[in-house]
Amino acid sequence: MLLEIRNLKTYFFTSRGIVKAVDDVSLSLDEGQVLGLAGESGCGKSTLAYSIIRLIPPPGLTVGGKILFENTDILELDNDTFRKEYRMKKISMVFQGAMQALTPVYTVGEQLYEVFKYHMDVNYDEAKSLMEEQLKSVALDPSIMRRYPHELSGGQKQRVMIAMALLLKPKLVIADEPTTALDVIVQAQILNLLKQLQSKYGTSMILISHDLSIIAELADKVGIMYAGKLVEIAPALDIYKDPLHPYTQKLLKSIPRLKQKVEKLEFIPGVPPDLRNPPSGCRFHPRCPYVMDICKKVEPQLVEIKPNHYVACHLYSEGGKR
Amino acid sequence: MPKPLIIAENIMKWFPITRGLKGALQRLPVIYARAVDNISFTIYQGETFAMVGESGSGKTTTGRLLLKLLDLTGGEAYYGSIPLSKLSGNPLKAFRRQAQMIFQDPYSSLDPRFTIGASLEEPLIIHKITKSDEERKELVAKILEDVRMIPPEEYTWRFPHQLSGGQRQRIAIARALMLRPKFIVADEPVSMLDVSIRAEILELMRSLKEKYNLTYLYITHDLSTARFIANRIAVLYLGKIVELGNADDVIEDPLHPYTQALVAAVPEPDPELRFKLKEIKVVGEIPSSVFIPPGCRFHPRCPYVMDICKKVEPQLVEIKPNHYVACHLYSGNKLYEEVVKNEKAANVRQI
């Protein structure tokens, strides 16, 4: 097992109260596996990612739980060790919004070299061939190294970000909404590229998106988050063919489909809860069509209903009513 | 036959690129970005006309031209029988009441210092529609109910930052409807929202259209939402319409190679269809509208490019009833059919 997260809690201590962005989440990831994390904005999926790479901005703080990466609890490490030995080297990230993620005042080559400068004892010329090779692997011309980010298109910038994340051949890459703000054709190109690179290097990946159809392209395993909680996690096929949690079911039904003519789209009424003061019991109960009395009082636990298919919902407790 | 509401005849919008002082002194020729380059179409009363294309294809510029938020460089657009280029003064103000816009980004399209109520009242004040405060408040409450912000009293005193993205977009829709317009340009109204909220906004737009007898120009880069809401779809590439037809026809039987790529590129929420994505043969990205390729604008990215494509610009031709395409593959026709057939056979084997 490459990554195991146990009861992770990341809270933001704001002046208006504590926002429990990630609240008691546990999951695991094997080597070479792709985990998709889905949920509406504000459900804590990005915060979970930033917790793993330890880049939670203040006033956020990881207050509890363990993140075991190759059996080492990376939350116990001091900042320097983590930065030197783990970030970029073993765990790297493709950030959301490639448009803003690159520094406008440095060339692409300089920004890529910075990764080497910090982690390896090489000069620019030695690193150059490695960088060229990496740029070729993301289907970019190496001459792009002399260019500035504003000279590149959105798709090219995203490819540079991916090249950068893979430079030191990390074992785990976190991709946070890697295709938002890209056009559909470019999005498909980037998804194909991620697919190729993932199988070429055997990298494990956590793919974060609000769009389940993007996750369907890559993920082996899918986790659904709602209001800071993991509500369902299962192999990809199970999630799409037999979703158990009412939230997952609704999410899937609300996607406008291209290949089918739908007369009426379903949607989830209401809005996600305020995480400073989440609803009691099951956090989804105010929006759930199957709500029962118990849902308002008792918080459901993540239980294995079918092999490898975990769900946190009272509908399936006591032998499973449905 | 329904009556045409908007007629665009060879409309053009060229933006001059600044030459700088040095360029001006050297008398360099002015270079233009040809954002919309000579396109014609008609939008009929009561229909939803979708304009689909990547960023840089000129779809937003077209929408703004039809609302006279931008002036035409050439050609003419008509609202009913009124030519837009001649509009000014009071007739222009009257036109503004008839035609409204829903913007893409609900996070920046609402004034952060205005309460929701104030934002919604403003058009009524500008156009002097209501006589008293009570009447205005009543209209605001009614429109909030229409966009399902219930109860309205709870929202009139809120500020935009207190609302979620979906709620803000509903306010943006309410504001566009405030003056009871006939024609609405919706510029990517759901692209900034989560997939789960898109459905709700699209449903709302559809029911409001029935209720108020609206005509939409729906601008998007996403074919799946276009199919859901639109009657007809026009596909734009670098300022030109490359395909135009009924929504179902364009998506189920796309003729232009660009449309085919757009259709193939849409991800489906089904892990079993993963291999489908590999079929995308279109390479690269949309070029700048300053350097438009000669001949067919799509030829540098087209998988079926022929010699003629590099020289002659194809015209929009009706290939099937109400289905238009601008592509040389259909001038001779038979060759193309063969290519497609072989291609399909090859793909079947691959999978």
Explain what you see.
The complex is a heterodimer of chains A (322) and B (351). Chain A has eleven helices and twelve strands. By secondary structure, chain A is α/β, with parallel strands linked by helices. Chain A has an eight-stranded mixed β-sheet, sandwiched between helices. In chain A, strands 2-1-4-5 form a four-stranded antiparallel β-sheet. Chain B is an alpha/beta fold and 351 residues long. In chain B, helix 7 runs parallel beside helix 8. The relative contact order of chain B is 0.13. The interface between A and B is large, with 47 and 44 residues.
Specify the number of helices of chain A: 11
* CATH fold call of the largest domain in chain A: Rossmann fold
**What is the C-level CATH assignment of the largest domain in chain A?**
Alpha Beta
User: Which strand order do you get reading across the main beta sheet of chain B?
Assistant: 6-7-8-3-9-10-12-11
Summed over residues and divided by their number, the pLDDT of chain B gives a mean of 87
Full CATH superfamily name of the largest domain in chain A: P-loop containing nucleotide triphosphate hydrolases
Q: From the helix content, strand content and strand pairing of chain A, which structural class follows?
A: alpha/beta
Kindly report the oligomeric state of this protein.
Answer: heterodimer
Summarize the main sheet of chain B. Answer: 8 strands, mixed
Radius of gyration of chain A: 21 Å
Chain pair sharing the greatest interface: A-B, 47 and 44 residues
* Average of pLDDT of chain A: 89
Q: Give start-end ranges of low-pLDDT stretches of chain A.
A: none
Query: What are the low-pLDDT stretches of chain B, counting only 5+ consecutive residues below 50?
Result: none
Portion in strands of chain A:
15-25%
Anisotropy-based shape of chain B = globular
Query: How many individual β-strands of chain B?
Result: 12
Number of strands of chain A: 12
The class by helix and strand makeup of chain B works out as alpha/beta
- What spatial order of strands do you see in the largest sheet of chain A? 6-7-8-3-9-10-12-11
